[in-house]
């Protein structure tokens, strides 16, 4: 049950029907002049919350999500169109009772008066828990000029989708923060191995060959020529020499190698979707600062 002590928690909350479907947001609470208890709540519906419908909260419950009322969303949608001028006439009240199939309340002559969110939960100081009479509330006690966009909020306009904060809403947008981070992309190794290849070089060599030389008999060599038998067999030999290539191998250092790193700077383009909030106006005579609708 919702009492006068919890009215401030109702205003601005989401309103759900008996099946859990969201109807809209609570705007104003109307009190029974006879009992002083909450009897009706106006619920803003529609895309921009411009339509207000009366919904009974006599048997409603206040939950963590908002307000749960014992009627269907479709029932509220087709509710009688009654102006939310801060007061319900007996005829308007009876029309709502008949539509929602409720009793006629405590008195067929009773009237309804609205209350909005204040620090005490009751908008009018004329409504108190003690010393309260029917004559303490009359139609002349509230006029159209008493209800403005600044009532009980102190700002021009107020939030319709939740609790009121101040007179403006904040627009936010996502911004792209681009940076770099270092990560391992690969490794380079330096290793040595042995290969065999053929090397060909030309080396000059020399060798000795036998050559027959003849000389005539002269007075200078006659004595040597006549030494020995006149007719005989004889052998004479000469040792011949030749050079052959000789190969020898040795390991010698030829150079030193090492791995090093260098930094190369490239340009890369990144693309990402970001969101931002925009605002639009809707309603009668809604114009911006430049006078445009």
Automatic annotation (TrEMBL):
UniProt feature, compositional bias: Basic and acidic residues: 131-152, 273-293
Superkingdom, taxonomy of origin: Bacteria
Compositionally biased region (Low complexity): 120-130
Region Disordered, residue ranges: 120-167, 263-293
Cross-referenced InterPro entries: Bac_photo_RC_H_C, DUF2382, PRC-brl_dom, PRC_barrel-like_sf, Stress_Response_Assoc
Domain DUF2382 positions: 169-280
Limits of the PRC-barrel domain: 6-74
A family per Pfam: PRC
Protein name (Swiss-Prot/TrEMBL): PRC and DUF2382 domain-containing protein
């Amino acid at each position: 049950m919702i009492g006068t002590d919890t009215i401030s928690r109702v205003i601005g909350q989401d309103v759900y029907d008996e099946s859990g479907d969201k109807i809209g947001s609570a705007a104003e609470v109307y009190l029974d002049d006879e009992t002083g208890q909450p009897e009706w709540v106006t619920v803003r519906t529609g895309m921009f919350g411009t339509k207000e419908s009366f919904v009974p909260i006599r048997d409603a419950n206040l939950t963590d999500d908002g307000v749960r009322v014992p009627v269907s969303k479709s029932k509220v949608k087709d509710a009688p169109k009654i102006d939310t001028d801060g007061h319900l006439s007996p005829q308007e009240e009876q029309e709502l009772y008949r539509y929602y199939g409720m009793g006629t309340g405590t008195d067929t002559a009773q009237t309804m008066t609205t209350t909005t969110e204040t620090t005490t939960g009751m908008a009018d100081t004329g409504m108190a828990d003690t010393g309260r009479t029917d004559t303490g509330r009359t139609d002349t006690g509230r006029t159209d000029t008493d209800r403005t966009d600044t009532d009980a909020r102190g700002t021009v306009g107020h939030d319709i989708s939740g609790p009121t904060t101040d007179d403006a809403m904040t627009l936010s947008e996502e911004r792209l923060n681009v940076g770099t981070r270092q990560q391992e992309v690969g490794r380079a190794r330096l290793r040595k191995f042995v290969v065999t290849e053929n090397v060909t070089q030309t080396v000059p060599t020399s060798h000795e060959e036998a050559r027959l030389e003849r000389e005539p008999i002269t007075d200078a060599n006659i004595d040597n020529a006549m030494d020995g038998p006149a007719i005989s067999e004889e052998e004479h030999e000469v040792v011949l020499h030749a050079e052959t290539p000789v190969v020898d191998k040795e390991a010698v250092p030829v150079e030193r190698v090492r791995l090093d790193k260098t930094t190369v700077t490239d340009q890369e383009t990144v693309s990402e979707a970001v969101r931002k909030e925009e605002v639009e106006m809707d309603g009668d005579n809604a114009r911006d600062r430049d006078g445009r609708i």
